[in-house]
Specification:
By secondary structure, the protein is an alpha/beta fold. It contains 12 helices and 14 strands. The strands form 3 sheets. An 8-stranded mixed β-sheet has the order 3-2-1-4-5-12-10-11, with helices on both faces. Helix 11 packs across helix 12 (423-455). The longest helix has 33 residues, at 423-455. It starts with 13 loop residues before the first helix and ends in an 11-residue tail after the last helix. The model is unreliable at 412-423 and 452-466 (pLDDT under 50).
């Protein structure tokens, strides 16, 4: 049994769930016992299913399973993962926010959807039932079969959800999405990708950023999460040394490394590694296929342990790396021919710990760091001409303020006691002078009006009031 309850974890609290699910799940249609029981049942089901996937719940380890590839694929793509709350929550809240407009049909894409542990929540986030569409991409056809089974099971509590209408599965590589679903081009409102990018080499990742740009609609957002540095496994700091050298050389991917990873595992702790060491550290080439494969496994039946040696090739990310990549992408895009009207903007970027909690740290050696996340928005680009005009306008305003201040300081006011140059007194005199001029102009207008009316026989001097 779980040692904690759903209400003790922020992500699975009812109050948190209400920030992203449709209001129909917690608002009774009528004030009667049946309606109160209905919404309570629905929220209980949603909460229990959400809680089953958070890492604070020990039972959530049942959701951590190897990614099963098709028979022709030999690469190891790791495992499915428990909820990474501090990137998944803003994603779900964003989907719900854009769905509040009854005239809008939100378009949502999840890449590397695996077995649907994030995707099942998206239909619940659409405020207006069945008004929205989720495209779920997964490389493995075997995982897509698991995805479909999980979606059916997790959404069966609400028979009103038309899964066939609002969910489309896209098999194969994410780079083929637009070929299979061309209507998604610049039409996606929200994009979610977790635990994928660290498998991409630099060439593939540049292509991936371009794909994000091609998919997102103006104002659309991408929510990305990938593995961060593995420095916690390396007491000799070989990986950190490579990172610093690559960073000093202005490498866009200073977290890219290949190394031999040695560790011990115990049978009763299958997801925990101990006695770790790192050796043979190097930077793979930009076009190398990044892989993790076993080199040796030595079983020790006496204590139920095994010593494992792996070749690990990983492209690790950080908030700074994400920011630099987007800057570089926008610069590259601006240098291409054509009238580019949009660019990508980093809305937020941060580290997270093993429980998916945000870490407010800039220290790459912080042992809590497991993931890096970024939220990217596609925005309308401010043209160079517009930027230049704005700079000129700002300069004119600054010059006008400067001239006004100088004029006030230079104004001399004669009084009975002598000469004063106080800016306050000068301002008072200037104001009085302006009032006097305005009064004189007004009197001249009234005099002209009097003459017209008087000579026209419409007004006598007795009626004229100064």
């Amino acid at each position: 049994a779980s040692a904690i309850s759903a209400d003790e974890v922020n992500f699975s609290k009812i109050e948190t769930i209400k920030t992203w699910v449709s209001s129909k799940y917690y608002t009774p249609k009528k004030h009667n016992r049946y309606e109160y029981d209905r919404v309570k049942y629905q929220m209980d089901v949603i909460q229990n299913q959400v809680f089953a996937m958070v890492p604070q719940n020990p039972n959530s380890l049942s959701n951590v399973n190897p990614i099963v590839n098709d028979h022709s694929v030999t690469r190891n793509f790791g495992k499915t993962f428990q909820t990474i709350s501090d990137i998944e929550l803003p994603f779900l809240q964003f989907v719900h926010k854009i769905s509040l407009d009854p005239k809008k049909t939100p378009i949502v894409v999840e890449i590397a959807a695996a077995d649907g542990l994030v995707s099942w929540k998206v239909p619940l986030a659409f405020e207006w039932q069945n008004q929205g569409h989720l495209y779920a991409n997964e490389f493995s056809s075997i995982m897509l079969t698991r995805f479909e089974a999980n979606i059916d099971a997790l959404l069966k509590f609400d028979p009103g959800i038309d899964k066939g209408k609002i969910i489309t599965k896209i098999g194969g590589s994410c780079f083929d999405i637009l070929e299979k679903e061309p209507e998604l081009k610049e039409n996606v409102d929200a994009l979610y990708v977790q635990k994928l990018e660290h498998f991409f080499n630099p060439i593939q990742h540049q292509k991936f950023i371009a794909l994000i740009d091609e998919l997102l609609a103006l104002g659309g957002r991408a929510f990305l999460c990938a593995d961060s540095f593995r420095f916690r496994f390396d007491d000799k700091k070989l990986l950190y040394g490579l990172y610093l050298a690559l960073k000093a050389n202005r490498d866009l991917y200073p977290g890219l490394s290949g190394h031999i990873f040695r560790f011990t595992q115990y049978r009763e702790e299958p997801n925990i590694v101990r006695n770790t060491s790192v050796s043979n550290v190097m930077r793979p080439d930009d076009n190398d296929e990044l892989e993790t494969r076993f080199l040796s496994v030595i079983e020790n039946p006496d204590d139920g342990s095994r010593t494992v040696e792996q070749l690990v090739m990983h492209n690790c990310f950080s908030p700074e790396i994400y920011q630099n990549l987007i800057i570089a992408y926008n610069s590259m895009k601006n240098n291409q021919p054509g009238d580019n009207q949009t660019e990508l903007k980093v809305v937020d970027s941060f580290y997270m710990d093993v429980r998916g909690n945000r870490i407010e740290s800039e220290n790459e050696l912080d042992g809590r760091i497991i993931h890096a996340a970024v939220i990217i928005e596609k925005i309308e680009k401010t043209s160079s001409k517009t930027k230049a005009n704005k700079r000129k306008a700002d300069k004119r305003k600054a010059k006008a303020r400067e001239d006004k201040e100088k004029a006030l300081e230079a104004t001399s006011v004669h009084t009975e006691n002598g000469l004063f140059t106080s800016s306050n007194e000068a301002a008072d005199v200037a104001t009085k002078k302006q009032d006097k001029n305005a009064s004189g102009k007004k009197q001249k207008i009234l005099d002209r009006l009097y003459k017209v009316l008087h000579y026209g026989g419409l007004l006598t001097s007795a009626n004229y009031i100064h």
